[in-house]
Amino acid sequence: MITREFSGKTEKEIIDNALDTLKLKEDQVVFDFENKGGIFSFGKKDLTAKVSFEDDLLFGNRCLMFVKELLEKMDIEAKIYLIEEDDEKIIIEIESPDSALIIGKQGKNLEAIQTIVNVALNRNSNIWTKVIIDIGNYRSRKEKMLKKTALTAAMQVRKSKESVLLDPMNPFERRIIHMTLKEEKNVETESEGEGLVKRVRVFYKE
Q1: Residue 200 CB: number of other CB atoms within 10 A?
Q2: What are the DSSP calls for 98-130, one per residue?
Q3: pLDDT at 133 over 90
Q4: Among 116, 124, 173, 205, which residue's Cβ finds the most Cβ atoms within 10 Å?
């Protein structure tokens, strides 16, 4: 059994916040309410509640099982590990002899799997917890390559003072480009296009 503490002005506020954060239903948790303010508190007192639930209902565990079942339906042999979990993100690592198939051309299959998991497990929640799925350190290697691409483009733009339009990228890839060049002198970036896949243009800036 796992117990977390939530605070709020009313019991309903605490219940809604806890269920939204934990991504659980009310019948899956036990609330133990108590007054947070002491006898010397002034004004309206905040409430606090200890919220208890079974270990296997943790969001990270449910993500793990979802990925496992998804790969099984694809007839892919794999081991899945929960690497990191907090209220903002979940990191899952896949180990498989079919890594090339899971990654796909330019990482499209891996990105599709990650998108499916994120949408399926976050769809009924107002608080989005990002699920990051990696295999064989692909994302780490991809990030290094994208940073190199960004810096090369910045160098070219500074030299020619003309903009450079990069290849189409998903949100994860575009964010790396934007963040890499955020502090670079004489350049700025802007995404162009519609939908999830867009292109990043690198501009010269005096």
Answers
A1: 26
A2: THHHHH-GGGHHHHHHHHHHHHHHHTT-SS--E
A3: yes
A4: 173
